[in-house]
Amino acid sequence: MKVRIHVSLKPGVLDPQGRAVHHALEGLGYKGVEDVRIGRLVEMDVADDTTDAALDEMCQKLLANMVIENYRIEKVA
Amino acid sequence: MKVRIHVSLKPGVLDPQGRAVHHALEGLGYKGVEDVRIGRLVEMDVADDTTDAALDEMCQKLLANMVIENYRIEKVA
Fold it and tell me: Which EC number(s) does the record attach to this protein (chains A, B) (predicted)?
């Protein structure tokens, strides 16, 4: 089973990397960009019998820092 | 308009970060994980009149390294 996990900073948490990208896009002449936030994308191949609870646990224990980040699990196939 | 850009390593490109995460998950006792690859997630707020061509250009010029990475643009709202 393919699983895609989107990890993004919680709203309100400063994102210097996103700010740098925003600034760089403006420097390249793109005017319409209002906000940029950078997150992580974890693509995993897991056994078909992996439970949602196990996936949640992996995210909370390792893949996301729950103090400043949110995650979203998307099953692809 | 909200746009989500998924940047991931091309198949065949070594992913040491993904390998480290895979190893760590195994160390935590999760047996069913077969492969892990780590990518970037860029969430942008752009003006509604931003064209697809402009978004493509941003990806190719700045957001993705086309030599080793692929990107996918997803319009959220």
Answer: 6.3.5.3
How far is B32 from B35, CA to CA, in rounded Å? Answer: 9
Give the nearest chain B residue to A48 (CA atoms): B32
The pLDDT profile of chain A, 77 residues, written as one tens digit per residue, is 999 999 999 999 999 999 999 999 999 999 999 999 999 999 999 999 999 999 999 999 999 999 999 999 999 97
What ipTM did this prediction achieve?
0.90
Interface contact A27, partner B, CB < 8 A = no
The full set of domains in chain A, from first to last, is 2-75 (3.30.1280.10)
Closest CA relative to residue B70, chosen from B6, B25, B4: B6
